[in-house]
Design a protein that fits this description.
Keywords: Cell outer membrane, Membrane, Transmembrane, Transmembrane beta strand, Transport. It is a single chain. By secondary structure, the protein is α+β, with helices and mostly antiparallel strands. Helices cover about 60% and strands about 15% of the residues. The strands form 3 sheets. Strands 3-6-7-8 form a 4-stranded antiparallel sheet, with no helix packed on it. Strands 1-2 form a two-stranded antiparallel sheet. Strands 4-5 form a two-stranded antiparallel sheet. A hairpin with a 2-residue loop joins strand 1 and strand 2. Helix 2 runs antiparallel to helix 3, helix 3 packs antiparallel against helix 8 and helix 6 packs antiparallel against helix 7. The longest helix is centred in the N-terminal third of the chain and has 67 residues. The chain is rod-shaped, with a radius of gyration of 40 Å. The protein starts with a strand and ends in a 9-residue tail after the last helix. About 30% of the residues are buried. The N terminus is likely disordered.
């Protein structure tokens, strides 16, 4: 047995899996995390596409044109009446054409800049959502890990309960055979032993279910063997962050909780989108240039360079742009309100997690003494019963109290570990926390 802070725990094999290893394995194969990573890649591509709007565009155009007849212009010169009704061809009825064009925006009234800013904010949203999925996954794996440890110790306690009842049954039967105790004591002890065996079966089933749930997180077969390092005896299970003040955790949650970051960035993205849409109603200035070739025997020069400056200002569109911008602005305000509501909920969550962690720490100081006292009370009750100084019910009650003391000890240990992890999650520190 290993004693940690007065608590007796069973030693585990060196090859047992640590919580850090469980996290690494679970994070590799989780589908939700992979989906979040793919969305983050999509947001990065969206940002690159928005920035590409700044760059010049190069286009190549070519084609073949066929008309029913050669295009011609009517000639009407009053000084030359003999040409009346004549026509003068100016293009071929079949021709090839081609050209290359370069165009670039010069001034867009902030439309492109706001679009890029919106894409940057949306990228931060995807990063925050990935961190949220990462943090939730780590907490879920840790909860399953703790549940396995809790179930293992519950099974150990049930084994010790069965052994204690079997030992007491042997004492009662020996005393009954010598005529020192009534058969009622034998029957009461048999009932208590049957209850102990039933509880042991329930503990075995609970451990099997806990191991199956844990294996699912790691992508293993449900019935694979599970051997875990105890969080209390694991040297890699560091306990920094436990003694910070409540205000420090509240501040950390406000700055680091991925949900708040995602909502804040989403609000900013909508604000930038609204500004970009609004800017599209303002003057847009661009430049373009190119080289064209047109097959036409009637032209003196059928190829050449060209350049131009283009300005577009849409003065009236029935209010469409204004309404679209208003819609995005309203959505931005709605998301900002959601962020404020979530911040208040998270503050309550952090406070509750911090208080639970403080409460479980205090419980740890009591359970070790309670276990020692329960063992002593049981030994005294057995001695008094064998000496005829106490009834059988005193021994059964003492064993029940011992069982409760051991269960309270294990619950205090793992409630404390779980409260620590939940506090890190509530403060937004679990995603970056190295176990």
């Amino acid at each position: 047995m290993i004693c940690i802070n007065g608590l007796l725990l069973s030693p585990l094999a060196n090859a047992a899996e640590s919580l850090q290893q469980a996290w690494e394995q679970g994070l590799k194969r989780d589908h939700l995390l992979a989906s979040s990573s793919a969305r983050q890649e999509a947001a990065e591509a969206q940002l690159a596409a928005a920035k590409a709007t700044y760059f010049p565009k190069l286009a190549l155009e070519a084609g073949y044109l066929r008309t029913e007849s050669e295009p011609a212009a009517k000639i009407s010169i009053p000084a030359l009446p003999m040409l009346k009704g004549a026509s003068l061809p100016f293009a071929q009825d079949a021709s090839y054409f081609g050209g290359v064009t370069v165009s670039a925006p010069l001034f867009t009234s902030g439309r492109i800049a706001q679009g890029v800013a919106a894409a940057e904010a949306q990228q931060q949203v995807s990063i925050a959502q990935t961190r949220l999925t990462y943090s939730e996954l780590k907490l879920a794996i840790a909860q399953s890990y703790v549940q396995v440890l809790r179930a293992e110790h519950a099974l150990q306690v049930s084994h010790s309960h069965v052994q204690a009842m079997q030992k007491h049954r042997a004492d009662v039967q020996a005393l009954h055979e010598r005529g020192y105790v009534a058969r009622h004591d034998v029957l009461a002890t048999e009932v208590a032993l049957a209850n102990a065996l039933q509880w042991q079966l329930q503990a075995e089933n609970g451990l099997s279910l806990a191991r199956a749930a844990y294996n699912r997180w790691l992508g293993r077969a449900y019935d694979d063997k599970v051997e875990l390092q105890d969080l209390v005896t694991d040297p890699g299970n560091e306990r920094r962050d436990l003694h910070q003040s409540l205000s420090a955790y509240l501040l950390a949650a406000q700055e680091q909780r991925p949900e708040l970051q995602a909502l804040r960035q989403q609000s900013q993205a909508l604000q930038h989108q609204a500004a970009s849409v609004k800017a599209s109603h303002l003057p847009q200035l661009g430049v373009s240039a190119g080289y064209n070739k047109l097959e036409n025997r009637y032209l003196a020069q059928d190829k050449g360079w060209w350049a131009g400056l283009v300005m577009k200002w849409e003065l009236f569109d029935g209010g469409q742009v204004r309404q679209q911008s208003s819609q995005l602005s309203a959505n931005a305000r709605a998301v900002a309100e959601l962020a404020q509501d979530n911040q208040e909920k998270i503050q309550l969550q952090v406070r509750q997690a911090w208080m639970n962690q403080q409460e479980t720490r205090q419980r740890l100081g009591l359970v070790a003494t309670a276990v020692e006292q329960a063992d002593e009370v049981l030994n005294l009750a057995r001695e008094r019963y064998r000496s005829g100084l106490a009834p059988n019910s005193d021994v059964l009650d003492a064993e029940t109290r011992r069982l409760q003391a051991y269960s309270n000890r294990d619950n205090a240990i793992y409630d404390h570990e779980l409260a620590r992890l939940q506090l890190l999650y509530a403060a937004g520190m679990l995603a970056a926390h190295h176990q």
